[in-house]
Amino acid sequence: MTPLPTGLGGGPEIIGWRLDRDSYAPTWSTGEGAFQVGGRWNSKGVRAVYASLDPATAVLEVAVHKTFKTLDTVPHVLTWFEILDPARVKVVTAANVPNTNWLRPGAPSAGQQQFGDAILQSGKFMVVPSAVSTHSWNVTFIADLVRGDFRALNQEAFALDTRLHPP
Fold first, then answer.
1. Which pLDDT value is given to residue 133?
2. Residue 159: is it exposed, middle or buried by C-beta count within 10 angstroms (0-12/13-18/19+)?
3. Where along the chain do its domains lie?
4. Max intra-chain CA distance, the chain
């Protein structure tokens, strides 16, 4: 469950959420997919791991690429993890990027990927607004560079609300 905000009795934890096909769940932190094809914030050949700071955004991030039909008919696993050292988090906002179009839906540019590569290669967790849910946050990192600064908390089978894929 998403932790409550500190003001409502929750802790200061930074929790990341990721949704994968169940066959990929054991290797969720390898960045294999992003390594093979690149991503919004990394070039091909960089093992970036993409997640969100809340589970609903993690679901939307996968649904926008794979569809709700896939989430309804193909087994997936929801993983959550804790970022242990907030000092290792770089928050990227519109004021921090040279081109605000990078924060909108669309194909990433080479400049956008290089910008992300530089932050990720510095050993930081990069927190950036989601292009799918612009008031939500995604977190991206290279697991080998932040090893010891995060820990997996749990994984569970994901079940899509069937109303999102009606007959």
1. 94
2. exposed
3. 14-159
4. 47
